[in-house]
Amino acid sequence: MDLETILVRAESKGLKSDEFKRLLQDKYITLMREGRLNDVTALNELTGIAPVYHEEILQEVYARYLRESKYDEFKKLIGMSSVQPTEQVIQEAFETAIFTPQVDFWKVEQLMNVTESVPGNKIVQRAYLSFAEKEDYSSLIELKQITRIEPCDEVSKKVYSRDKLQTLRYRSMSPKNLMDMLLTRVDNDVLCELTEYINLTGVKPPCDDIQNTYLSIFKTGQLSFMSEFTQIVKTEPSQETIQAALEYLLSQREVQKFSNMLLALNINPDREIVQQAYRSYALGGYVGEIKELKNITGVEPDEKVTDALVEGLLADRRRNYTDSRGPR
Q1: Distance between CA atoms of 99 and 96, rounded to whole angstroms?
Q2: At 50, phi and psi to the nearest 5?
Q3: Cα four-point dihedral sign 183, 184, 186, 189
Q4: Residue 298: left if φ>0, alpha if ψ -120 to 50, beta else—which one?
Q5: Residue 163 — pLDDT band, cuts 50, 70, 90?
Q6: Is 61 strand, coil or helix?
Q7: Which residues of 142-174 are buried (b: 16+ CB within 10 A; e: fewer)?
Q8: CA 185 to CA 148: how far, in whole Å?
Q9: For residue 167, what pLDDT band results from cuts at 50, 70 and 90?
Q10: What value does the mean pLDDT of the chain take?
Q11: Angle (deg, nearest 10), helices 87-98 and 55-67
Q12: Contacts of 283 (CB under 8 A, 6+ apart)
């Protein structure tokens, strides 16, 4: 049966050529929506009239296939039309699978395989927040394992919120706040509790809390715990944190802790903060610390340090003179 014969038969039924072709295209659309792609191919071969693939219709059909888990049809229609699904269609499918009363993780994985895509970061982070609010940490961990997307800092703050942590009972501790513990004392027990909490929730602490813990480690000289803490949170101390800790130790004349920190991090100090420390020590007459710091850093005191030493001596003379005269 050729096309001319079909058109003649259609016209005998009162269908003109253009109307017949329009109805045929409508039929193609119906067949595609129903997932009957073999019938689309067969009808094309029968009539010799190819289906016209409209972008809008195709995207609607792709969305339906993904929603109804018709993945074979989804891939076949892409091959037939040479038109790719839009990112919006794919992400809406992920969103539907994730934001259901019970997350369909199996469908999320299937969608990732068939679309060769992953759920967008905004969708995943919104899901993480929802899980955190409900304390549904098993779902959070499973979605994280599937997508390999790390929870953002907003999620971390929700999981490590002070009110939430205060309700927990730790294996070896009273119900105090875990992050506050880390800022006051870092030891094996606290690190063990942190590890368990990360394993429970799938979320590491917020960035600020991590950096503040590093600052606590550096200030207290508990450098033996630094490597383990880094492995647990999988985050390095920032340059800002390191600089702040070095400046703090020098301001407190903790020269030995300063030296230990340099060795632990295998870094050289900024020369300017060393000169500032020299000047501060010179003003106060702490010459021994100047010598010790010079031996550690190899930085020669500049002329301003000498000026500070002189200023310190003059200040001592004025103070001694005032003291010797006594009250009037």
Answers
A1: 5
A2: -75, 150
A3: negative
A4: left
A5: low
A6: helix
A7: bbbebbebbbbbebbbbbbeeeebeeeebeeee
A8: 32
A9: very low
A10: 87
A11: 20
A12: 308, 309, 311, 312, 315
CA distance 239 to 106: 42
pLDDT tens digit string along 172-202?
444 356 777 777 778 888 888 889 888 888 9
State in Å, rounded, how far the first CA of the chain is from the last one.
127
Q: At what angle do helices 137-147 and 105-115 cross, to 10 degrees?
A: 10
Q: What one-character DSSP code corresponds to residue 171?
A: S
Single-letter amino acid, residue 42: A
Among 80, 143, 91, 79, smallest CA distance to 117 is for 91
Burial of 77 (0-12, 13-18, 19+ CB in 10 A): buried
Asked if 277 contacts 255 with a C-beta cutoff of 8 angstroms, the reply is no
- Residue range 85-142, pLDDT digits in tens: 999 999 999 999 999 888 899 999 999 999 999 999 999 999 999 999 988 999 999 9
Residue of 68, 64, 106, 69 lying closest to 85 (CA atoms): 64
Tally the C-alpha atoms within 13 A of residue 187's C-alpha that lie toward its C-beta. 6
Amino acid identity of 218? F
pTM exceeding the 0.85 threshold for the entire prediction: no
State the Cα–Cα distance between residues 85 and 79, nearest whole angstrom. 11
